[in-house]
Amino acid sequence: MTNAAAEEAKAKGNKALQAGKTSEAIEHYTTAINLDGTNHVYFSNRSAAYLQQKNANAALDDAEACLGLNPNFSKGYSRKGAALHALKRYNDSIAAYKEGLEKFPDDAGLKKGLASVEQEKTKPAAAGGVGLGGLFSPQMMAQMALNPKTRPFLNDPVVMSKIKLIQDNPQLAPTMLQSDPKLMALISAMIGVDMDEEDYEEMVEPKAPPLKQKEPAPMEVEEEESEDESHLTPEDLKVKQSKKAAVACKVQGNELYKSKQFEEAIAKYEEARELDPTNMTFLSNQAAVLFTQNKYQECADKCLEAVQVGKENRAPFEERAKAYTRAARAYQKMGDLDKAIEMCNEAQLESYDKATQRLLKTMELENKKAKAAAYLDDEKAEEAKQRGNEHFRAKEYPAAVKEYEEAVKRAPKNAAIRNNLAAALCKIMDFNGAKREIEVALELDPKYVKAWARKGDIEVLMKENHRAMESYKKGLELDSDNAACKEGLRKVSSMVGAHMSEEERKERAQHAMADPEIQNILQDPVVRQVLQDFNENPQAAQAAMMDPGMRAKIEKLLASGIVQTA
């Protein structure tokens, strides 16, 4: 028995859809579904309306509900394939059409839909890296001549003259394409965009406008179809009716969820699960409600239960992956990132998804930061530092480095530990590592005079005397009596004036020339003039040296070895 009120609502929906009023049609189909949620045709029609409204996700949900109610309904597979096609899930769309064709090998709609998605999947992305001028290359012109749809255009002298202009100057292409529908028709044909035969004919030989405007083609909808259930055993018939009733319960649960009646929604999903315990969707829906209610542990448990049911009943890999991903988010909310990462990896094994991969990377980063924060311990850092000091005094430098690095992990913001690590790294000739650590120490504590002295010592070892001189001076600005900075400045100053071999001078100059600061000084035209004045006009050069800024620049050049004193 059909529900008269539901049939009336469906008829109103059909009329609205044929008139192009998709929102109104959806409302009427929804009314029909609420009155009779076991009728697969109502879901099929609403899927068509959603797809026309470009709401492919909703169209897919209704298509799947339609097939859940009646897996022997050919149009349901067409609806599912079309929705997946619109979502650009080409492989899934092809699978849906093929599944339908296995049951209905002569169905024209399924064949047409399959051909359309396969064509779109395999066609090249013509609008990508190829310039518009390349569309009219000799090879493309030859293809146009062989294409019965585009061949007549090539006999049109106006079209050919415009093609010649684009070949000579591809920059004209955008403007000409916008103003010439014939050129657009040519390009559409060559990149695989279908146009009706009548459209091509009108492009070649424009027809007079019709006296009466053509009525829009009505949207295809279905009427109720009677099914032959005589071949079913009583047990099979009971299972089928239970599955239909389960889908109807799920639809009611969805409506309750949308209205935020969460407990009632869970009850409906549970009722659906009891009617059809082989369908994991009902458990997944319960998990979604529990997540919304912030019941994360229950959500995760329900997701894993859904996965188990899905595996036992060969549910699609994508559905199992979604359940794992929701479990991952639940564990993330509970702060169990190790378990969340495990769930994401399980989801990717079921069905790879870019969004899940991004979630996985985010969780891995969060987990790394959380573990690093949990590792912090000032007392253990001090113990490791003392062990490092003992190794350093015993000249066991690699062991000292290891202990100091452990101390840094425990207390990454301790400047003194990084200073000690820099000293140990110098002993094993890792000057770059030593400089990196001492620079971090100074970022943590810019007034750490001992670190400035250590930085100067490292820069001397790296033959960056101009930088060493600057480091020692900064240390002395903070503590004018610091012995290490005084001694370091004295030594580097004596090195600047000391006699060096030609090879040593060149080596120092090469180090200096790699320094961007030295490069900028040498490119300064005023500095270059002062250097020239030292040879040609010493009095002017001495006057320029009275300026503190200029004096600092010249001293850097002297310390670096770029400029030599007589």
Task: Compute the number of helices.
Answer: 31
Instruction: Report the principal-axis shape.
Output: elongated
Q: Which spans of ≥5 residues are poorly predicted at pLDDT below 50?
A: 125-133, 193-219, 222-226
Number of strands: 0
Residue share in helix: over 70%
Name the average pLDDT: 83
N-to-C CA distance: 113 Å
Radius of gyration of CA atoms, rounded to a whole number: 39 Å
What class would the helix/strand composition place it in?
mainly alpha
Largest sheet: none
Strand content: under 5%
Give a quick summary of the entry:
This protein has 31 helices and no strands. By secondary structure, it is mainly alpha-helical. The radius of gyration is 39 Å and the shape is elongated.
Question: How is the topology of this model organized?
Answer:
Blueprint: H1 4-18, H2 22-35, H3 40-52, H4 56-69, H5 74-86, H6 90-103, H7 108-122, H8 138-146, H9 157-168, H10 173-179, H11 181-190, H12 197-204, H13 234-258, H14 262-275, H15 281-292, H16 296-312, H17 317-334, H18 337-350, H19 354-375, H20 378-393, H21 397-410, H22 415-427, H23 431-444, H24 449-461, H25 465-478, H26 483-497, H27 502-513, H28 516-523, H29 525-536, H30 538-544, H31 548-560
Helix pairs in contact: 1-2, 1-3, 2-3, 3-4, 3-5, 4-5, 5-6, 5-7, 6-7, 10-11, 13-14, 14-15, 15-16, 15-17, 16-17, 17-18, 18-19, 20-21, 21-22, 22-23, 22-24, 23-24, 24-25, 24-26, 25-26, 25-31, 29-30
